[in-house]
């Protein structure tokens, strides 16, 4: 009897902590960094990778029932928030189509960590440098495409152009910096090795900007849809598209900082310990764990810099859009 009462009290407390459900709205406030951080922790939750097709259909149907006021009795706010989390993690917000698992934000860490480990391997050859930079930018290009603002179609030529631009810039910068380090005779071998470990960051950061700008350049030409407070499309804005690309590009620069800077520093310290010196086979597993931890920290921090559905004042947009609505502000999907 006491256990039943305790369970009921716990359920009631959990229900009290759960905010009232709002369809299409984030569970946590997006006006603060902490709120966005908690929101994106939900978005990148890798457990959503294992959601079955039937569970996805149930979640979508539950949200449809809520939308049309036909919810079954007894459905809680927690169940509705959970259903929306599943839908947002798997389906694209603009197309409502399933995102391929390795390119979902929830799959970015599990599928991206092996690539980060490869980028940070010591004593890279020319071939291995090119391979890991190519693989990283291929993954990034697909993630950018899968999570883009899809209110306007992206021609295949634009995708290929952005992909090739990112790969060429990443490989050129990485190979060029490695060559400079190798020719720097004043560095000791140990210092040269340490500097080489930091080479991936400028290469990846520069290529990430190229990747975003080239792959989404058509948004600057055609604009992206902006919506009023009721979710109605007000118009297509090139100014909003520019804001979206700048915010996404900044995110892509911040993202690799902890991933490609912290592990080299940590590993340079750990490699001097007796454990790793006596057991060199542990080097790769330890480096993999360090990269995974850095990745897990960096991703939610970086994508929390700006809300996915960003807000902008209509007075900052094109005159025809400002005249088309009485709303003081409109929102647009920045993309991830």
From TrEMBL:
It comes from the Eukaryota. It is found in: Mitochondrion membrane. InterPro entries: Mtc. The keyword Protease does not apply. GO terms for biological process: amino acid transport; mitochondrial transmembrane transport. Its main location: mitochondrion. GO terms for cellular component: mitochondrial inner membrane. The chain crosses the membrane at residues 162-181, 253-270, 282-306. Keywords: Amino-acid transport, Membrane, Mitochondrion, Transmembrane, Transmembrane helix, Transport. It is a multi-pass membrane protein. GO terms for molecular function: citrate transmembrane transporter activity; monoatomic ion transmembrane transporter activity. Belongs to the sideroflexin family. This is Sidoreflexin. The gene is SFXN5.
């Amino acid at each position: 009897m006491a256990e039943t009462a305790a369970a009921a009290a716990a359920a009631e407390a959990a229900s009290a902590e759960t905010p009232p459900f709002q369809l299409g709205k984030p569970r946590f406030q997006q006006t603060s960094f902490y709120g966005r951080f908690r929101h994106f922790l939900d978005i990148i939750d890798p457990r959503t990778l294992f959601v079955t097709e039937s569970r996805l259909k149930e979640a979508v149907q539950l949200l449809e029932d809520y939308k049309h006021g036909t919810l079954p009795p007894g459905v809680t706010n927690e169940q509705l928030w959970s259903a929306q989390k599943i839908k947002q993690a798997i389906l694209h917000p603009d197309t409502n189509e399933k995102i391929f698992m390795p390119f979902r934000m929830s799959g970015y860490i599990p599928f991206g960590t092996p690539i980060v480990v490869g980028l940070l391997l010591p004593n890279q050859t020319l071939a291995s440098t090119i391979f890991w930079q190519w693989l990283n930018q291929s993954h990034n290009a697909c993630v950018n495409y899968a999570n883009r603002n899809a209110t306007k179609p992206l021609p295949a030529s634009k995708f290929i152009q952005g992909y090739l631009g990112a790969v060429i810039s990443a490989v050129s910068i990485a190979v060029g910096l490695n060559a400079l380090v190798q020719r720097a005779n004043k560095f000791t071998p140990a210092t040269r090795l340490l500097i080489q470990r930091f080479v991936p960051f400028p290469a990846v950061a520069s290529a990430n900007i190229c990747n975003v700008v080239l792959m989404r350049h058509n948004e600057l030409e055609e604009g992206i849809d902006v919506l009023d407070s009721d979710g109605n499309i007000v118009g297509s804005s090139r100014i909003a598209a520019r804001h979206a690309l700048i915010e996404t590009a900044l995110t892509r620069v911040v993202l690799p900082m902890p991933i490609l800077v912290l592990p080299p520093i940590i590993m340079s310290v750990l490699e001097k310990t007796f454990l790793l010196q006596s057991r060199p086979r542990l080097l790769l597993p330890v480096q993999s764990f360090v990269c995974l931890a850095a990745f897990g920290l960096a991703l939610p921090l970086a994508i929390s810099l700006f809300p996915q559905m960003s807000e902008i004042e209509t007075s900052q947009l094109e005159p025809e859009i400002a005249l088309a609505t009485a709303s003081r502000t409109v929102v647009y999907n920045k993309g991830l």
